[in-house]
Amino acid sequence: MDEWFESLDQCVKDGVVELKTTFEIVTNFSFIRAKAFQALSEGAPNFSYDEHLGTLFNFDLEDAELGSGIQVHSVELDEELHSEGLYTVEILFNYEVSKELVALEHTRAALKLVKLNTRLVDFLKVSLTLAGREFTVVPSTLNLRIQTPHGWRRVYQSSGKQPKIEPLQAEAFDGFLKSLQSSTKVFARYTMEKKIKNLVGLMSSGLRLETRNFESDALLNFYKVIEVVAKDPAFVEHSVEILERPLAYGKAIVNSGQRSLIAYVWEYLKKIEPKIGEDSLELLVKIADTRNKLAHVGAAKLEPNMVPFCKTVAMVLLRKFLVLKTTSDKT
């Protein structure tokens, strides 16, 4: 059984403490399922769930700065061999401690450290949301530990609340892992800017609702992401440059009703995504009309491809918006 740490002062080395956040998550993706599907599709008579199946992925973030004195060393995901979509997550990080924090009474100092847990879970939430994935923290698995002269000691244990699991190639997930580095910049913005926090929240909620088959609600969330981004001044300025239109045109059209807005989004997408065609415009207009019915009548019939396509467009616009925001930080 883990012992609890007793003194913050004993844990400080060169002004920082070494911490480890661990928790279990239930997700809407599975490395194991992807490996099984691949093996069976290649003609294997069966698929063996044994200890030789690699399910541990570790990504070195090289002390990426999250702000507020947090430096992330690594993120590790280990999928439970016999429970698809269940992962143990471990995040190793440093935290700069002030003299004032060290001088606090032990319980108060511990409570200050506990807030770091929320930031690290939020960081993973932002990163996974941008990868089109979602997760729920398994109750009573969220822990924070600190490195002491006697090894790791527990600072805190908390809880969280369960989801359509789909196959995900581990190789494809590598792209997400590589994106974690840039996600640290996004996360710094996420903690500062309410609009980014709200957009990530909308996207995350949409993914969760889609996973649980609440498709109408998911569509509303994804569409709201599209609408908010399309109307943002930074995006309007960017999009009129891409479309070679006057700024006044962009400002006017995004505020001229849902059909005009979605047609403008299609026009922009067609410029940056060569595969976008006329059929995509028809589908986007149908999505806009369906959104209006859901918002004003409360019911509408959804076509099978509406939610996935709306999600894809929302993700493209959200990522572009975050790039615009993080790029503006450097100028």
Order of helices and strands: EEHEEEHHEEEEHHHHHHHH
Question: By helix and strand content, what is the structural category?
Answer: alpha+beta
Rough outline: globular
How much β-strand is present in the residues? 15-25%
The biggest beta sheet reads: 7 strands, antiparallel
Over the alpha carbons, how many angstroms does the gyration radius reach?
22 Å
Q: What is the subunit arrangement here? A: single chain
N/C terminus separation = 51 Å
What helical percentage do the residues reach? 40-55%
Total DSSP helices: 11
Structural domains: how many: 2
Mean pLDDT equals 85
- What is the strand tally? 9
Poorly predicted runs of 5 or more residues:
none
Protein name: Apea-like HEPN domain-containing protein
Organism: Pseudomonas avellanae
Describe, in plain words, how this protein is organized in 3D.
By secondary structure, the chain is of the alpha+beta class. 53% of the residues lie in helices and 20% in strands. It is built from 11 helices and 9 strands. It has helices at 31-41, 99-103, 106-130, 170-192, 194-211, 215-231, 233-243, 247-253, 258-272, 278-296, 306-328, and strands at residues 16-27, 29-30, 56-67, 70-79, 86-96, 135-137, 142-148, 151-158, 166-167. Strands 1, 3, 4, 5, 6, 7 and 8 form a 7-stranded antiparallel β-sheet that branches. Helix 5 (194-211) packs antiparallel against helix 6 (215-231). The longest helix is centred in the middle third of the chain and has 25 residues, at 106-130. The mean pLDDT is 85. It comes from Pseudomonas avellanae. This is Apea-like HEPN domain-containing protein.
